[in-house]
Design brief:
- This protein has 304 residues and is an alpha+beta fold.
- The protein has nine helices and six strands; from the N terminus they run βββαββααβαααααα.
- It has helices at 50-60, 85-102, 113-117, 133-184, 191-208, 214-228, 231-249, 256-276, 280-300; strands spanning 8-14, 23-31, 36-41, 64-73, 80-83, 123-126.
- The strands form two sheets. Strands 1-2-4-3 form a four-stranded mixed beta sheet, with helices on one face. It has a two-stranded antiparallel sheet with strand order 5-6.
- α1 runs parallel beside α4 (133-184) and α4 packs antiparallel against α9 (280-300).
- The protein starts with 7 loop residues before the first strand and ends with a helix.
């Protein structure tokens, strides 16, 4: 399983076996997220699919914010209506009683039919009969199978995007590795340069204090040597590069979280390198290194 992006879109089309002439379309979208979060929009009458939707998404994907939408359309888009005659009779009776009570003084007239039909509940939309439990179970299974087809397409789209991202990530790692070797080869890290810098610092220390004990001088020398030594940071950067390459090439499922942790380690070593740099060239390399690491991390944020 190569690395996969968390961004993608897919759709799949099927039918509701309990309603003739219907078309059911699943659309699934995903963007990056810390974990796996599923949101859905399902029309009335299909609410029982919600749990199955969450399970189907979790089966195919491990990370990302996933939006699932089900659209159902019938062959006949014109709805049918019927008159609620019992309610209409009640309203008509009430209108007659008030006409008798008030007489002609109030000028109450019998309501017109078009006005009565506009009252809520008088005109009802006729829907198809709800399927029984067995038919609903078969319908839900058929629709989830269509959703799973859409999720397979989404996973493939994310994998295709991941393959393109892999090329970018490897390029960033190559640049980081090149900068690490440039840092290791700077003149400031050559033995003769390190010795000369230590001699100057010791001379300055001796001049600053007329009397310096040998123990204190040894401590200061040790501190100066440690402060200017970036070999450990370079070694750790090389180790992080090797581990990142292994994760990208490995066939072990989602690696986004582990790569994100490595980015933090990259940043820590690059910051230490910059703080220890006592040379303009090494500082410049350290700043370039931080810039490339930031670009690498931006890509990693979208990896599953």
């Amino acid at each position: 399983m190569p690395i996969a992006s968390m961004t993608g879109f897919a759709r799949a089309e099927g039918a509701d076996p309990t309603r003739s002439g219907t078309t059911c379309i699943w659309e699934v979208r995903s963007v990056n997220g810390k974990g796996l979060e599923t949101r859905w929009r399902i029309p009335p009458g299909y609410d029982g699919l919600e749990i199955a939707v969450r399970e189907a998404v979790a089966k195919r994907l491990k990370r990302g914010n996933v939006s699932v939408t089900l659209t159902v359309s019938g062959a006949d888009e014109q709805p049918s209506y019927r008159v609620n005659e019992a309610l209409l009779d009640q309203i008509m009776d009430a209108a007659r009683r008030w006409q008798i009570k008030t007489g002609d003084v109030a000028g109450v007239q019998m309501p017109r039919l078009d006005g009565l039909l506009a009252l809520k509940g008088v005109l009802e939309q006729v829907g198809e009969e709800e399927p029984d439990a067995q038919a609903r179970e078969a319908r839900d299974a058929a629709l989830i199978a269509v959703l799973d087809d859409a999720l397979v397409k989404l996973a493939q789209a994310r994998a295709d995007e991941g393959a393109r991202m892999e090329t970018v990530l490897v390029g960033h790692l190559d640049t980081i590795a090149d900068l690490v070797e440039q840092a290791a080869g700077t003149a400031a890290l050559r033995p003769e340069a390190v010795k000369a810098r230590l001699r100057e610092q010791v001379a300055a220390l001796v001049d600053a204090q007329t009397q310096v004990s040998e123990d204190r001088l040894a401590q200061e020398l040790a501190l100066l040597a440690v402060k200017g030594d970036v070999r450990e940071e370079l070694d750790r950067l090389r180790a992080h590069i090797a581990q990142a390459r292994e994760l990208i090439a490995a066939d072990k499922g989602p690696v986004g979280r582990r790569l994100d942790f490595l980015c933090q380690e990259f940043n820590r070593e690059a910051n230490t390198l910059c703080s220890k740099a006592q040379d303009v060239a090494l500082t410049r390399i350290g700043l370039e290194l931080k810039a490339v690491i930031d670009q690498f991390r931006e890509q990693v944020q979208n990896i599953e």
